[in-house]
């Protein structure tokens, strides 16, 4: 056992850093550190640069066009990009549907869909949740009825992140109304341009538009868009969720968050000195810093097991729970560091490229909106309550 | 000891409840928040008519002889409706300071019309470097003939866009952060040399950044004594804190009620999610938190007029600590139990959550008041 990096890994980290510095636009980078929202272009230009380099689908094996990196390389890649202020890679293509397609899809499907995911030429979104199927995902009602060479799909998906940017949506649909929920769900790929697909924005508490309702009204989907066997989609669904839970802890972003928080504390005035001189506040930063370290080490232990051929077990749920709590706490402390100046609502500074000067310090405008928005992290990707149910049942046998 | 409301106080509570029910449905509030002013003059006129603008002032000041309990009753109902009218800056802060430190002439010229609904105020105390330190003031007032000239910056001045008069905390003597040497000035909001940058706050109120560039005022603009404003401001802010605590208590009641209703009706796994013990216990904790918040607010309201400023300060800080803690717990829990719906703009829960969060940041957050309380308690 050794925490130190080998020379080849150090060289690798340098290569990733150099790539980020050459390819990440200063404007996008600035948005990361100031907490502004990215535009579609910010994401796409960056992801396509990664795609060109062969690094967008960085968790994929070589066989499917991934770089075939080891666990250490992946870890370094994620951390260096976060330090350099890169936007997170939107997971829907490369981390979610891509692995489902290369694990459960036919050769034809792999050929058809994987290149667009690897290059980020095609954007994906996730059609899982429904108004009546949130925590109880298996209760989903969207129906797909086979008619000749097509499925006719009717229903509603919700909380669909970036559906308004998506070219394709992967959906869980019910293909047999009479069987048990888990034995009647199929995994279907739908082109968002198909007639009958409508996207309605949901405005979040910070005023942002990220998520949507997606209405499916007599949408005609060719049967060759079915992944895996009909009625066996729950297997794909669970496989995808386990992958999602691993990356969702967002450790590299939290490490960056802690360092940004310390910067803010050093710049925030208090009683003629700065907040960094207030031990009551800096102790709270130290506390969250240590929590991030514990989480990172726990994640590394899981990755190390996976590297030796193990699959991520249900214990990854604990990473998701702690990861979301940590992200929320960092956002909370950041807002508290800003203090009274977190009160002005400055949407122009959050969503637009503007030359306006902010009210209060530069880091003030996103502080409160981010705190409000981060409450979603203990809800999405399986709520904290659901994750704890999984651990108590699957790990502890309760 | 008697902790029950008098008949008059019960009537006041009923009237405030009725106002919120009739005028502050969630949809109505959204419309009011979207207006240019951010509040409705017709509501303000109704407050005057109902006597709410004068209820907490003595009869010799033109009020109706009530006190902090009356303010608590009304603020609590305002919290339930997330009421947007500028009661806190105008009545509690502005009116409160004029009543406690104003001359007879100032009371006649300002307090009487405020009680009639004809004047509004804003308190400009905060500066960029102040954080929660009320004495960290650098806006300067210098002698100019018989009067004064004010220059400097003030931030997050609630109700500045609507106020007729800005009450400005300025340094007239002493060094930075020294409580002595501060003076309050009542300045016409339209005075030459004041420039304003207006904005909404996270919770849909209105505030401004103000720049004072050689703003001339007469000697009669001084509120209270020159160089002696600190205790006046501290007392007024402590009163405002207790009023805010009452508002927060109302917010907690409303957000808890909405969450309880939601978990009774939202079904997953074939049952209302309120059947799950993990949510039941969290809901019980929300209820307990709101109870503690109400208790501390009531205690602070009963102590806030104490002659001993330490008793008053400890009561205000103690209640603010509790409100910070309980508000955060109820707010975060309500969002969590609502799931994705809790983080949307569509439901009222996210709006209560925002208001509770902003209340914690106003006039010192939980940590600040814990330290203040601790220092006062250790000194005793």
Number of domains of chain B: 3
The stretches of 5 or more residues of chain B where confidence is low (pLDDT under 50) are none
Query: If strands are numbered along the chain, what order do they take across the biggest sheet of chain A?
Result: 1-4-5-8
Distance between the termini of chain A: 33 Å
**Assembly state:** heterodimer
Can you name the CATH architecture of the largest domain in chain B? Up-down Bundle
Provide an overview of this structure.
- Chain A has 3 domains: 7-89, no CATH class; 124-232, Butyryl-CoA Dehydrogenase, subunit A, domain 2; 248-395, Butyryl-CoA Dehydrogenase, subunit A, domain 3 (Up-down Bundle).
- Chain A contains 13 helices and 10 strands.
- Chain A has helices at 7-23, 26-34, 40-53, 71-83, 92-104, 107-119, 233-247, 251-267, 279-307, 316-338, 347-351, 367-373, 384-395, and strands at residues 124-127, 143-147, 150-157, 168-174, 185-191, 197-203, 209-222, 226-227, 269-270, 273-274.
- In chain A, the strands form 3 sheets. In chain A, strands 1-4-5-8 form a 4-stranded mixed beta sheet. In chain A, strands 2-3-7-6 form a 4-stranded antiparallel beta sheet, with no helix packed on it.
- In chain A, strand 6 (197-203) and strand 7 form a beta hairpin.
- In chain A, helix 8 (251-267) packs antiparallel against helix 9 and helix 9 packs antiparallel against helix 10 (316-338).
- Chain B is of the alpha+beta class.
- Chain B has 3 domains: 7-119, Acyl-CoA dehydrogenase/oxidase, N-terminal domain (Butyryl-Coa Dehydrogenase, subunit A, domain 1, Orthogonal Bundle), CATH 1.10.540; 122-229, Butyryl-CoA Dehydrogenase, subunit A, domain 2; 231-379, Butyryl-CoA Dehydrogenase, subunit A, domain 3, CATH 1.20.140.10.
- Chain B contains 11 helices and 10 strands.
- In chain B, helix 4 crosses helix 7 (230-265), helix 5 (87-101) runs antiparallel to helix 7 and helix 8 runs antiparallel to helix 9 (309-338).
- Chain B starts with 6 loop residues before the first helix and ends with a helix.
- Chains A and B meet through strand 9, helix 12 and helix 13 of A and strand 6, strand 9, helix 9 and helix 10 of B.
């Amino acid at each position: 056992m050794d925490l130190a990096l080998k020379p080849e890994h150090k060289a690798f980290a340098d290569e990733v850093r150099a790539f980020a510095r050459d390819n990440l636009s200063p404007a996008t980078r600035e948005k990361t550190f100031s907490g502004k929202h990215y535009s579609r272009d910010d994401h796409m230009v960056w992801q396509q640069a990664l795609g060109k380099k062969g690094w967008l689908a960085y968790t994929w094996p070589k066989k499917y066009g991934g770089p075939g990196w080891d666990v250490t390389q992946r870890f370094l890649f994620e951390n260096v990009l976060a330090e350099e202020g890169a936007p997170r890679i939107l997971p829907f293509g490369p981390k979610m549907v891509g692995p489902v397609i290369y694990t459960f899809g036919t050769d034809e499907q792999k050929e058809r869909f994987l290149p667009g995911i690897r290059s980020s030429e095609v954007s994906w979104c996730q059609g899982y949740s429904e108004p009546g199927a949130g925590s109880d995902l298996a209760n989903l009602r969207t129906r797909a009825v086979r008619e000749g060479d097509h499925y006719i799909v009717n229903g509603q998906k919700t909380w669909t992140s970036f559906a308004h940017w998506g070219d394709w949506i992967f959906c869980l649909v019910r293909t047999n109304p009479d069987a048990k929920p888990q034995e009647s769900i199929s995994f279907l790929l739908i082109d968002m341009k198909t007639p009958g697909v409508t996207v309605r924005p949901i405005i979040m508490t910070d005023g942002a538009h990220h998520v949507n309702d997606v209405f499916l009204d007599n949408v005609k989907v060719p049967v060759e868009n079915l992944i895996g066997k009909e009625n066996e989609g729950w297997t794909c669904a669970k496989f995808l969720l386990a992958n999602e839970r691993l990356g969702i802890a967002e450790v590299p972003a939290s490490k960056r968050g802690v360092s940004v928080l310390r910067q803010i504390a050093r710049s925030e005035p208090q009683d003629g000195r700065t907040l960094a001189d207030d031990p009551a506040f800096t102790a709270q930063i130290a506390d969250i810093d240590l929590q991030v370290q514990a989480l990172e080490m726990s994640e590394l232990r899981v990755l190390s097991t996976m590297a030796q051929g193990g699959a991520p077990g249900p214990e990854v749920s604990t990473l998701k729970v702690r990861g979301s709590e940590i992200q929320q706490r960092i956002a909370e402390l950041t807002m508290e560091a800003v203090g009274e100046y977190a009160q002005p609502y400055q949407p122009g500074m959050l969503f637009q490229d503007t030359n306006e000067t902010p009210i209060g310090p530069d880091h003030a405008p996103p502080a409160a909106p981010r705190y409000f928005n981060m409450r979603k992290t203990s809800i999405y990707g399986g709520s904290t309550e659901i994750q704890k149910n999984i651990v108590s049942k699957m790990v502890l046998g309760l | 000891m008697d902790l029950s409301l008098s008949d008059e106080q019960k009537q006041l509570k009923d009237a405030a409840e009725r106002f919120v029910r009739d005028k502050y449905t969630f949809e109505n509030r959204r419309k009011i928040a979207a207006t240019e002013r951010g509040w409705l003059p017709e509501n303000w006129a109704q407050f005057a008519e109902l006597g709410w603008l004068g209820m907490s002032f003595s009869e010799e000041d033109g009020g109706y002889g009530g006190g902090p309990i009356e303010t608590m009753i009304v603020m609590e109902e305002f919290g339930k409706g997330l009421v947007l009218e500028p009661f806190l800056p105008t009545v509690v802060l502005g009116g409160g300071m004029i009543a406690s430190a104003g001359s007879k002439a100032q009371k006649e010229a300002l307090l009487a019309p405020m009680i009639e609904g004809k004047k509004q105020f804003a308190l400009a105390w905060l500066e960029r470097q102040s954080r929660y330190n009320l004495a960290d003031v650098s806006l300067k007032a210098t002698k100019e003939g018989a009067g004064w000239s004010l220059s400097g910056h003030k931030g997050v001045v609630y109700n500045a866009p609507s106020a007729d008069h800005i009450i400005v905390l300025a340094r007239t003597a002493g060094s930075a952060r020294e409580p002595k040497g501060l003076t309050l000035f009542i300045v016409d909001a339209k005075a030459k040399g004041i420039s304003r940058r207006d904005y909404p706050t996270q919770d849909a109120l209105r505030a401004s950044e103000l720049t004072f560039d050689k703003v001339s005022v007469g000697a009669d603009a001084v509120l209270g004594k020159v160089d002696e404003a600190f205790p006046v401001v501290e007392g007024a802010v402590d009163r405002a804190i207790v009023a805010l605590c009452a508002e927060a208590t109302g917010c907690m009641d409303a957000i808890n009620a909405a969450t309880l209703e939601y978990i009774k009706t939202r079904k997953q796994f074939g049952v209302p999610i309120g059947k799950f013990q993990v949510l039941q216990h969290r809901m019980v904790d929300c209820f307990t938190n709101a109870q503690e918040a109400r208790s501390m607010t009531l205690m602070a309201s009963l102590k806030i007029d104490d002659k001993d400023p330490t008793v008053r300060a400890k009561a205000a800080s103690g209640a603010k600590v509790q409100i910070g803690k309980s508000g955060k717990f109820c707010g975060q829990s309500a969002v969590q139990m609502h799931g994705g719906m809790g983080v949307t703009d569509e439901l009222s829960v996210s709006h209560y959550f925002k208001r509770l969060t902003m209340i914690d940041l106003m006039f010192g957050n939980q940590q600040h008041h814990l330290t203040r309380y601790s220092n006062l308690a250790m000194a005793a």
